[in-house]
Automatic annotation (TrEMBL):
InterPro entries: Amidohydrolase, Bact_exopeptidase_dim_dom, Peptidase_M20, Peptidase_M20/M20A_hydrolases, Peptidase_M20_dimer. It comes from the Bacteria. The Mn(2+) ion enhances activity. The keyword GTP-binding does not apply. Keywords: Manganese, Metal-binding. Residues 173-260 form the Peptidase M20 dimerisation domain. GO terms for molecular function: dipeptidase activity; metal ion binding; para-aminobenzoyl-glutamate hydrolase activity. This is Peptidase M20. Pfam families: M20_dimer (PF07687), Peptidase_M20 (PF01546). GO terms for cellular component: cytoplasm. It comes from Anaerosporomusa subterranea. PANTHER family: PEPTIDASE M20 (PTHR30575), PEPTIDASE M20 DIMERISATION DOMAIN-CONTAINING PROTEIN (PTHR30575:SF3). Its cofactor is Mn(2+).
Length: 368
């Protein structure tokens, strides 16, 4: 398989959920071996795959990273894996770019590292790869993501895609059970949760800082309808453009949740999880991707950076190793109706452009 579209078409037929990407990983590892890379499989005990090519000449280590997992969608009442976020497209572009770079002898200094990362949708794949040492020797890392049509057109790409920080906040409320005829003897967990939701909705940070927090799940059931429930659980989805804003928002939200529960005499255990950091890029990598996009598309194809409230675990690589120079571009591909939609589709011809942007960027750094 030499065509990026052919690789995409194949990967699209074998979607697998996070940390279960066995067929996907096996295919990618085999293709890397055929291309001449030294391949590490089952990275850190996961389905992660790394390909390494060492030029033998002193120079930086540059990594191309692609996520490989699919999403879970309910179809006819059954959980099915479906590629509706474009990870199969990302893998196809990174793989074929790496193959082309090897065929053309373009890595003349330093090392090229190809990282196929599992479980991006779970928010834990990047951390597993980092823990296994995947980026210990990496000086710079590039990633790519398909973008919806309303953000960027087929004829353009963006040199920096700024994802927001994203977290989940959980409150487990504990009241006192009682008969519905004697509510004064109990503490209603529903009342406590409702008070906490109202308190969180009243949080105000600097309006110049982009953020949002909203309750997205509320579960409570005493088992019957004539009893005061003693336990309830609420989940909040929390997002912020900046990591510093996220820290303030989480702190205020925890205080508000506890105060809300206390107004009715309940207690609450508050935890935050699924923490995804906001994007932080280095200027020289944005410049590199801007140059690459301009070279591939022409000047009219370069769009200004885009901000999105979506999250991406790619940004753990920078958070956990701040010395890494990171770049992440958004590929215009006429994607509709949206990412994570079960009917997501896009113009596959855009993948050729995405592959070429990656090739240009690597050659600029390692072909000296």
């Amino acid at each position: 398989m030499s065509s990026v579209i052919e690789v995409y078409d194949f990967l699209h037929t074998i979607p697998e959920l996070g940390f279960q990407e066995y067929k996907t990983a096996a295919f990618l590892a085999n293709e890397l071996k055929k291309a001449g890379f030294t391949v590490i499989e089952k990275v850190g005990g996961t389905t992660g795959v790394i390909g390494v090519y060492d030029s033998g000449v002193d120079g930086p280590t540059m990594a191309l990273r692609a996520d490989i997992d699919a999403l879970g969608h309910m179809v006819d009442g059954k959980l099915c894996a479906m590629h509706t976020c474009g990870h199969d497209a990302h893998s196809a572009m990174v793989l074929t770019a790496a193959e082309d770079l090897m065929k053309t002898g373009s890595v003349k200094q330093g090392k090229l590292k190809v990282i196929f990362q599992p479980a991006e949708e779970l928010g834990t794949g990047a951390l597993a790869m980092i823990k296994a040492g995947a980026v210990d020797d990496v000086d710079m890392i590039l990633g790519v993501h398909l973008r919806p049509g309303e953000e960027v057109s087929m004829a353009q790409s963006v040199p920096a895609l700024y994802h927001a920080a994203a977290e989940r906040l959980q409150g487990v409320f504990h009241g006192v059970p009682a008969h519905g005829a004697r509510p004064h003897l109990g503490v209603n967990a529903i009342d406590a949760a409702a008070a906490a939701i109202t308190a969180v909705n009243a949080i105000h940070l600097n309006p110049n800082e982009s953020y949002s927090i909203k309750a997205t799940r509320f579960t409570c059931d005493a088992g019957v309808t004539n009893a005061i429930p003693a336990e309830a659980t609420v989940i909040w989805d929390v997002r912020s453009e900046l990591n510093s804003t996220m820290a303030k928002l989480i702190e205020k939200a925890k205080s508000a949740i506890k105060a809300g529960a206390a107004t009715v005499g309940a207690t609450v255990a508050v935890t935050n999880y699924q923490s995804i950091p906001a994007a932080e890029y280095t200027g020289d990598m944005i410049d590199l991707l801007s140059e690459a996009i301009t070279a591939v598309y022409g000047p009219e194809g370069l769009r200004e950076p885009v901000k999105t409230a979506g999250g991406e675990d790619f940004h753990f690589y920078i958070k956990e190793k701040p010395s890494i120079k990171a770049g992440y571009f958004g590929l215009g591909c006429d994607l509709t109706p949206g990412i994570h939609h079960p009917d997501m589709k896009f113009n596959k011809n855009a993948l050729e452009k995405g592959k070429d942007v990656l090739i240009y960027a690597v050659r600029k750094v390692l072909n000296s």
